[in-house]
What we know:
The complex is a heterodimer of chains A (about 1000) and B (about 325).
Chain A: H1 16-38, H2 70-106, H3 108-123, H4 126-137, H5 141-168, H6 171-178, H7 183-220, H8 231-239, H9 246-274, E1 301-312, E2 315-327, E3 332-336, H10 343-350, E4 358-367, E5 370-371, H11 377-383, E6 388-391, H12 395-398, H13 405-416, H14 421-434, H15 440-444, H16 453-465, E7 471-475, H17 483-500, E8 503-508, H18 511-517, E9 520-525, E10 528-534, H19 535-540, H20 545-553, H21 594-598, E11 611-612, H22 617-622, E12 651-661, H23 666-670, E13 677-688, E14 693-697, H24 704-712, E15 719-724, E16 727-728, H25 738-743, E17 744-747, H26 751-754, H27 761-773, H28 777-790, H29 807-819, E18 825-829, H30 837-854, E19 857-862, H31 865-871, E20 874-879, E21 882-888, H32 889-892, H33 899-907, H34 947-952, E22 957-959, E23 965-967, H35 972-978
Helix pairs in contact in A: 1-2, 1-9, 2-3, 2-5, 2-7, 2-9, 3-5, 4-5, 5-7, 6-7, 7-8, 7-9, 8-9, 13-14, 16-17, 27-28, 27-29, 29-30
Chain B: H1 2-29, H2 34-39, H3 45-55, H4 61-74, H5 87-122, H6 127-141, H7 144-158, H8 175-209, H9 212-219, H10 224-236, H11 238-262, H12 267-276, H13 280-308, H14 310-313
Helix pairs in contact in B: 1-4, 1-13, 5-6, 5-8, 5-11, 5-13, 6-8, 7-8, 7-11, 8-10, 8-11, 9-10, 11-12, 11-13, 12-13
Bound molecules: iron/sulfur cluster (2 copies).
Amino acid sequence: MNISHRFNLKNLFRRPASAVGTTVFLLFLVLAIFGSFITPYTATEQTLSAARQAPSAAHWFGTDHLGRDIFSRVIVGTRSILSLAGLGTLLAVISGTFFGLISGYRGGWLDEIIMRVFDSLLAIPALLLALLLLGTVGPSRNSILIVIVIVYTPIVARVVRSEVLATKNRGFVEAAKLQGESTANILRREILPSTLPALTVEASLRFSYAIFLVASLGFLGVGVQPPTPDWGLMVNEARNYVRLTPWALFFPAGAISVLVISVNLMADGLKRILQSTVIAPAPNVARETAPIPPADPAPVLDIRQLTVSYFQGGRWLDAVRDVSLKMSAGEVYGLVGESGSGKSTLALAIMRYLKENGAVRKGEIVFEGQTLLDLPPSAMERVWGARVNLVPQDPFLSLNPSLRVGEQIAEILRHHRHLSPAEARAETLAILRSVRLPDPERVADSYPHQLSGGMQQRVMIAMAFSTDPALLILDEPTTALDVTTEATILDLLRDLMTEHNTATLYVSHNLGVIARISDRVAVLYAGELVEDAATEDLYRQPLHPYTRGLLDSVPRVGQTKTGRKLPAMPGSIPAPDALPTGCVFAPRCPLVTELCRAERPPLDTPLPGRTVRCHRWDEILAGTAIPQTPQPVGATGNGNGKIPQPEFPVLNLDNLKRYFPVRRSLADVLARRPKQWVKAVDGVSLDIQPGKTLGLVGESGSGKTTLSRAVMALSEKTGGEIELLDIPLPAKLSRRSLDTLRQLQMVFQSPEEALNPYLTIGQTLSRPLMVLLGQSKDEARENVSALLRMVRLPENFAERLPGQLSGGEKQRVAIARAFAANPELVVCDEPVSALDVSVQAAILNLLNDLQHEKRSAYLFISHDLAVVSYLADEIAVIYLGQLVEIGATEDVLKPPFHPYTEALLSAVPQPDPTAPQHTIRLTGDIPSPADMPRGCRFHTRCPLVLESLCHREEPPWRETESGNKIRCHIPLPELAVLQSGSAVKIRNDE
Amino acid sequence: MTKYILRRFGFLILTLLITSMIVFAITQWLPGDVARVILGREAGEAALENLRSELGLDAPLPVQYGRWAVNFVQGDWGTSFSTRTPIRAVVMQRLGNSLRLALVTLVLAIPLAVGMGVLAGLNENKWIDNVVSISALSVVGLPEFVTGLVLIQVFAATFRIFPASSSAIKPGMSFGEALPFMLLPAITATLVLLAYISRLTRTGVIEELKKPYVRTATLKGLPRRVVIVKHVLRNALLPTITVIAISFGWLIGGLIVIENVFNYPGLGRLMVFAIDRRDLPLLQAVTMVVVVGVVLANLAADLLYAYLNPRIRLGE
Ligand code: SF4
Ligand code: SF4
């Protein structure tokens, strides 16, 4: 969403409550400014003869015991209270923002001190602190101002600080640091705008409390002093005469109440505009139903022409259109799609668990003979958990954090299978054992946070099978896990599905996973089912251009860039509110015709058991419509710009270390216990040659990201050397020269975080040109166009905000920024892992082309061996902070492997159902670097471990004939024999 | 958990240390010459000098602070400038009264506020929620002296159900005897707390309902009641503990005003009295007592929260 338009204050008038509040407040504001011109009397004028008069035409609000006109006093009091509270709040916001920014951004001891002092100030209740201050320095306008500032600064500072903490490690802020921006600039341009929404809301709340505070002080007699008309003071004076002049109490008290309530309503309105994400629920719609012909044998699940829509911005947007599927018992149906394809919506619609604004507008879901969509909620409670179960993507968030895991399973057994508590416990343990969890008793008694991600997902799977359901929906169950864990979970799922004969819908974006697990595959694109076939048929001969493109664009392990370019699809998946009229794939299809643009293709059945939605399937089937052939790499540009490099590497790491200290308690310090370290990167040495790519692979927790951050000085190295073009670099970013910054740039993982949402693309791209290359504003503006062209984006993108770009486009901008100053080395930290498969290929191609044009070297970090092997000249494999294997890509991919490399390779799911299944699996999880295994760090999981030796001694580096280095106790020839079956075919020939 | 408790305890000591410095700085250093504050403008130089050395004001500030802090911890809170009586007895007696009032208020407010918040949160954007939210927004806006005066008008002046003033509370009165005089002030404080706690509880429930584990629980086919009570509330009410602790500080602030509206003989009245008389030692003592109370409340909440939250209880 575009954030700047959220600041449009007109939105305050959308909701009645905030409209009323804002209007009333504005009226008070007008009174405060112009009030003194309309008051009939001066506020302090005493006319004793006119004392204690009830409201009348002469004195609208009556007079008080001294004969002062209350109306005039209330009006004049408005200015007093608004100016005090307003100015005080403003000053408090300024000083709070200042301290919050410094404290959050600097961190460390300064933060500690500021926050301790502020916490202590907050331990004194605001009014008490105010009284204490006023009691000692005496009441006056200035001291009230000071009081407001002191009392509210800590609160504002806390809010700002937490926003800063949430922002300061985001990609765009780090990118600004790497561009050599000054701290002041970073705070002002990059961080401050992100704090504004929260700051505005907090300021309005503080303003309301400040009014409250000033009035209360006045009431207690320590605020504004007489005879100045102050509402609180007036109430205090009037309460002694309440029997005689109730109006003298009523009007000022009423004024305070109305003012504060109006400010509160306004603040609440602001909060809703700026912070909340309330979605309007969907209105009721009558569903168009489809006739259900009797089927024999009855499928477990029969989805007929299902259309699921979300109600957004006052209209229906279809997330799933016209999808039909049939599943029989024991069948595993893969549902493939990218983000925005509607696959999760479809899964949730089957579960009847759509978001509040979602509804099934057409079609029917028949499950075990009953039409699911007609069941009342109470009947769904008998289906859920008993007959159909869901395993979601994120096991950690999907388990209740404060219930023991065993109870979370046992409650299902007690409820649906009516077991006694003791039986349920025994059964729970049995189920946990069946998902191959070691030590089921311990697991059952654990809370979710005590288990690893893989174990949590096993628990979810255990739950799903516990009632022997007829249908299981798995929504990206392994996406959050490492490949090695994913492989073991997939093995487990396969076995359980066969054993229970469950119909399974397996939803995933990963073609490799789908190939490994499913019997049939349905491909979803922009809400439509475009192809449906038996798995082998689909992968062998895809009939829809999208399926085909998808299969082509995934790099396979062993496919290298020296062959052909990855066939990439142009563009990205259309948003549901911008669907093309004809075929939804037409804008990206290489085979598009006029017919395709005009008319939506029907769902055809080219062969028995296969359906496809394309006008040209017959030509594709006959092989007469072959999509564009990809061009070889290197056709564009040939290494311009850079002076031929001398003989030394671009980057040389020598024994690089990054340790994090373990937080010590005071007791540890007093007992002089030695400092403990988490060795995230522990002695890594490598070089990268000019213009080459080194791929660094490892699981999460291996230290690969920490390594890249140490190289960039985003995290300070603990030891060892980092040399750029033979010059040692300082560990601290602030000590690195502009020249170094220019030579060393980075592309971050998440495109969503990479760009400052408040700056246009042009502003973002011109900064590195100005700071690193010293260009003037005008020069930079012109060169931005060239940069955009370089990453194949239209020039008018310079005017856009990141919110208007797709993920792939954002990543292109981030790449352009990294290349703006012609770097020697670009560190790419998982640059494509957050992108869709169809977009990923285009970004990989772009990186490849840029390397050819600019001769930059890459340190390319990824968990995905296929991606790394495609792009890298050399591969380094990292495990628990140390390299275990390093060498040229082809050598790393053939035996002898390091046992860990072999396990990684064997775990990669190949998008080819006929590929031989590797059976090397790692047991257990990667150990914590805080508790490092002795001897070989891999020995706890190594399938080839030599008991005594590997447990005791660190393995030596060994070198193969081709110069590939492996760190293992087993001699290489022996390794080669043990691994002879696992070679990966190098495909650079196709 | 032991580590966690020790850490919290360390924080408590640190906070008390810093707050006491702040309080000391405000009362002893900010006003300049304390002796002149006591003796007034016309006092002669000799008298001032005498008083200064009597009060130890001629020592350097850190030493003064050290003496003051040590005395305070040992229970020697000095003599009031204005009443010339030992401070501790007065403060302790008033503290008792204030705590009673706070207790009655919390007993009234917490169940009601949490109940309203949960109800509103479970029915987000339905009419119950709107009623609760809008009335909370309005009540939260009314300063205590306004609500208090309205209540006096209604319940004391018009219907004569409760006494309008609590000044009849005398030292040594039992809880039962004092209760009728505490009800109106307690109701006033309840109204303010109600709005505050119920809003935050509501937010907590709404956030919790959005979490994926609620979906898991629902899709297990458990009855809605079980999902809410066993799964949602267990987590949603955890932050409420912290909210209540924070509202304790809020309550104290409110009580200062309320006690003055109803002439209730608690710390709040004493505080305003001390300010009127510029009675600095009394002011110091009252403030420190309140601060200790607030800090202890926070500690209790932290520990309870940690105990009920397995992620902290079993962490580290
Ligand atoms: S219908 Fe046309 S545009 Fe659509 S996929 Fe087939 S060939 Fe491409
Ligand atoms: S040294 Fe031993 S444990 Fe380590 S990888 Fe080699 S065989 Fe496995």
